[in-house]
């Protein structure tokens, strides 16, 4: 944990001017923690990347896990196919964890782990690894994201139902408060809400309602002492987003500061000022990063950093910057370096850290802050009145609001009301020298990484003591079923060689798997623009020709849970008059083919953002042919590099759409074309 | 002497025979449970191009006389937990080794013709089971009822599978239409004190054969609701005076009461078989479906042309009923087409 930047506040201003007169360097606050979200292929490869980033001046780690690890599958599980090592590092057992932190003493490092459904397990592995290194869990510093509610709303890597998830979250909180006191057990996330389309007011209200539901749950547990409540409150930290409208974003952070303190005092009776401070980390907005003229993103990222650093009162404790090419694919070390240098220049070359808060007393900032605060309070109250954040998940309220906001944003981009430079304005461009001809300016994960990881996993299973592992699992089962904190038996299981898949399957068997409601039904009908009406006419015409209404299947194969794109496509398809079977996330190719056949669809739309498209889409196309459904056209959308797109087309995919294809009406027109062509006879 | 050759058939006759033969072959495969055939059959009956109508009718005629699985309607207000319950019911039946189909009618149709069919998502593990056939249907009918293809789709599914569920949100017209399509009706109720009056007002108590008070994890409010329901059932009129509807409590989310619900449905099926009520319902359903299609297509004037007395309360009497009763092996669609032709003749005569 970095030292509190405000600790020198009473001395800085006077000290700075005195020092300036004396000719010495002015006093400045210590900067926030520099992290870069990273991990890929294997523990060993990621370890090398971490060590290199640390050598470049990064001050904390931020671990990205692959989707199978995040959703509780070992690398050799059928659903892990194509996903291993793609969006993060695969961690199946303690040897993987140890390799990940080879030569990185955990008792001296600060590690943020983006892990939610399986947070307890990964934390158990981390603690077990620290002990293997000779460290003590009491000295560990870092964060487990552990925020399930936003998973239901955006990332989609939840596994268990809300009640069970709250139990897991609260047990991590109560364990760490006593045993790992400098650990942040939860990062209540508003970052992902903005990525899913949330407005600033929604970001504040939903995340605060979420934090309240966690605190209430923990507070009401019989084993938690009232005395511990201030400490528990103090350990709740946040993970925010910083968008391009950086003035409003700064006011949002100031408003959150105030609201958090209000909640602490009024709802939980906390009086200790230190415990009431809002602590948060940030990753700046990625949704707005463009594929077109991607170099523009360098500027966007730098400007977005301002929203969470300019105002000292509301400054982030740690900052993660995405790379300029995130809309193209995974960043290479050079791309990550550029983002790190951006932070270092802001922190060390500018005079930002030499001043007290720049905006206290600004009536403009204070008015905007108050406006956001009031609206957020109202929305938060609405959620609390309906029963809190968990209820607002189960009844799809929050999800529906997000789908609404996201739909509105996309429509505004389509109509030009919202300007995105290089996309719907100023599109003329010379070729970007940053994107070399013929090669994709991204990191390509070696396809052999998956094979190697599986081989390594099998070797691990062969050499571990199977009896010990089985015994540890039984003890874990006892605690899961009959009560008790899940952390101690999980740590023992980690040491005994239990794997990620085994731990998760045990919990799945007891808690069940959850299917979250989508918010798509709430998306209001589009106002009929000329273009939309024209497409509707075409859909009507084609439907008459086909004899029944044009029917499309929209679904996501593999483990990627970012369903916003797929949902927006589903909504748009409905708006132009198609019948849309929305099949949801986490589908195997076999399930997609079954749905396509049973529902009698005319076209299939697949959405994949995790990089597993090569394997999974080809599987779908193949299985369609085997089932005699080869004449049903397939279109694909997602994060798909040019070369891969050509490969997919060669394999039979009719169209490939990437983030640059923001005009959904045009996409719908092309889908009509595709179905028309396939049914020409 | 050379054997007499039969005169050569006209191309129209040959084509018609081919259609018939193909339809019968498809019907065989459907009855055998062939999934690809089921999908093809569903697409066929949904095809409204005149050229393809003959195929659809031939297929439905071929399926009509065959044995059919059990048809169960699941209805209730939004939020009562129908999808969760359906998921549990399907799993339960699969556990007992039965093949299951689900016709999920999504009410989210828009005037533009588009619809978001989200039932595959809502139904959870049931939708993923390779032994379950789930078909999503848009409600489609601009007049507020179920789309015309609901009945024929159900005909297809029930000739292939042991049990078929029809799930609707059921507000208003579509609810009473479900009655005509199914053998047993299950009503999923939310526990809520004082709602009994609402139930009675909406006429909802008349039709269901089994009531399931869901979310009984909410405690005594659930058992109170069940008690109120039982009392209300004693007071009101019932569609079948010989059978007292069963009221059960449970929790779909927690998997409680599901076995009892399946048993109750099985019991009702047994009762329908031995009492003859099942056959009566199917016949009444056929008549009602024919009548409904004709009403949609030709309106009141059309029905009058058939000699249907507007004032008659008994739907099982009258010209439509007699026509249908005399043709037990005709499919509903065929009957509707034939009577429709009569109506159109009558309209033409009117003009003259």
Summarize the structure in words:
The complex is a heterodimer of chains A (681) and B (352). Chain A is α/β, with parallel strands linked by helices and 681 residues long. Helices cover 51% and strands 10% of the residues of chain A. Chain A has 27 helices and 15 strands. The longest helix of chain A is centred in the middle third of the chain and has 23 residues, at 246-268. Chain A is globular, with a radius of gyration of 25 Å. Chain B is of the alpha/beta class. In chain B, strands 4-2-5-1-6-7-8 form a 7-stranded parallel sheet, with helices on both faces. In chain B, helix 10 (220-235) links the parallel strand 7 and strand 8. In chain B, helix 4 crosses helix 11. Chain A binds chain B through residues 395, 513, 515, 517-518, 520-521, 525, 536, 539-540, 543, 547-549, 570-571, 573-584, 591, 594-595, 597-600, 627-628, and chain B through 35-36, 38-39, 42-43, 46-49, 52, 79, 108, 110, 112-118, 120-122, 124-125, 127-128, 130, 133-136, 138, 140. Strand 12 (579-587) of chain A pairs parallel with strand 3 of chain B, so a sheet runs across the interface.
